[in-house]
Design a protein that fits this description.
With about 400 residues, this protein is mainly alpha-helical. The chain is built from 15 helices and six strands. The strands form three sheets. The chain has a two-stranded antiparallel sheet with strand order 1-2. Pfam families: Glyco_hydro_88.
């Protein structure tokens, strides 16, 4: 009898041990719904997805990428989410689509009203995020996206212009065109006029590029000055040309990206198509002459040896994207793919850092730069070097993803 009880006791003990071990093993199984989990287990993802997942980990809500206090309709979020749109189109990963849609739905109500947007400010920067609405409308057929598209398009109808018919950068900057503004307004304008207006305004779009090409080109370097004041009244403006006193890397990057993106909607048979392609080729040749041995470009690109200058991530990423896309689309000779890859190598080797869990960061991004305003920005070399230098700022993150996608890196 004692033996039988001992046998029962032994069997019971063994069963308990098996159950305990099983439960213990189950607890070890990953129970992680973190969207970043796939990055933690593998560093073999393409750089585009590694950066996109890193951003989502740090900022589950896209509006907070630059740590602003509340959601805002502004160009930088649109810049990053345009990169996510391209990534979604390539991967069909709904995570990237939802990241875009969550932001837009937070900012646009059922009537198509955009939270905080004031048309009468005539700020061309505010048009940029409108690029996200085309695909959302195509996918969902939700009328609120179409209404918001029409609202932003109506801004361009009343937007103040120079006497030579160029869009002012903002109402508060009369008679001024900045290279930045071409990226903010023209790709949106081009897609809208092609999809809803039978392309009737493509000549007007090409004219914006021609004005800044003709007015801001520095013939010594082949690069472009940051901005142009048609009135020549601003203290920063050259009294003979109206140009800003210096060349700023990211302004050139905005211009290059604007060209390759507008060309998506400029038919090859259009009389202005080849003109824009020629501008892109001119710029590609010029910026290649100022590429550092690292593959990157300097904040003030034509003054590499001057004290304080630094290799800047956002403008470098923009150049890589524009060059790579230009080659992929057949606008540029294939030699520029080598230059683009060298630039991307520079970003990875010099400006990207990787955490132990695989999260990546992009360093040495100029926070912002402009002209005039209060406090006053004089466009001097010293001014461009005085702006804060940040890590993981949206100006660099969006172009980095797009560059990686174009190079399939």
């Amino acid at each position: 009898m004692i033996k039988t009880k001992g046998t029962y006791f032994t069997l019971l003990t063994i069963c308990c041990l098996i159950l305990f071990t099983s439960c213990k093993q189950q607890k070890k199984e990953p129970q992680n719904s973190d969207p970043f989990a796939e990055l933690k287990v593998s560093d073999t993802l393409k750089w585009s997805e590694r950066m996109a997942l890193s951003i989502i980990k740090r900022n589950p809500q896209a509006w907070n990428i630059d740590h602003i206090p509340e959601p805002k309709w502004e160009y930088k979020v649109g810049l990053v989410l345009k990169a996510y749109e391209r990534l979604y189109n390539k991967t069909e990963n709904e995570k990237y689509y939802n990241y875009i849609k969550d932001f837009v739905d937070m900012m646009i109500d059922s009537t198509g009203t955009i939270k905080g947007y004031k048309l009468e400010s005539y700020n061309i920067d505010l048009v940029n995020s409108g690029k996200l609405l085309f695909n959302l409308y195509d996918k969902t057929k939700d009328e609120k996206y179409l209404k918001a598209l029409k609202l932003l398009r109506s801004q361009l109808d009343g937007h103040p212009r120079t006497k030579s018919n160029g869009f002012w950068h903002k109402k508060i900057y009369p008679n001024q065109m900045w290279l930045d503004g071409l990226y903010m307004g023209e790709p949106f304008y081009a897609r809208y006029t092609v999809e809803f207006e039978n392309g009737e305004n493509l000549d007007d779009i090409a004219h914006q590029f021609k004005l800044l090409h003709d007015k801001t080109l520095d013939k010594k370097t082949g690069l472009y000055f940051h901005a142009w004041d048609e009135s020549k009244q601003m203290p920063w403006a050259n009294k003979e040309t109206g140009c800003a006193p210096n060349i700023w890397l990211r302004a050139l990057g905005w211009y290059a990206m604007a060209l390759v993106d507008v060309l998506d909607y400029m038919p090859k048979e259009h009389p202005k198509h080849q003109e824009l392609v020629s501008y892109l080729n001119e710029l590609a040749e010029a910026i290649s002459n100022f590429q550092d041995e690292s593959g990157l470009w300097y904040q003030v690109p034509n003054m590499q040896d001057r004290e304080g200058n630094y290799l800047e991530a956002s403008g470098s990423s923009m150049f890589v994207y524009a060059l790579a896309k230009g080659v992929n689309k057949g606008y540029l000779p294939t030699k520029f793919e080598t230059i683009a890859n060298k630039g991307f190598d520079g970003l990875i080797n010099k400006l990207v850092t990787v955490d132990t869990d695989g999260e990546i960061h992009l360093n040495q991004i100029c926070k912002s730069a402009g002209l005039g305003g209060n406090p006053y920005r004089d466009g001097s070399y010293e001014y461009y070097l005085s702006e804060p230098i940040l890590t993981d700022n949206s100006h660099g993150l969006g172009p980095f993803i797009m560059a990686a996608l174009e190079l399939n890196r």
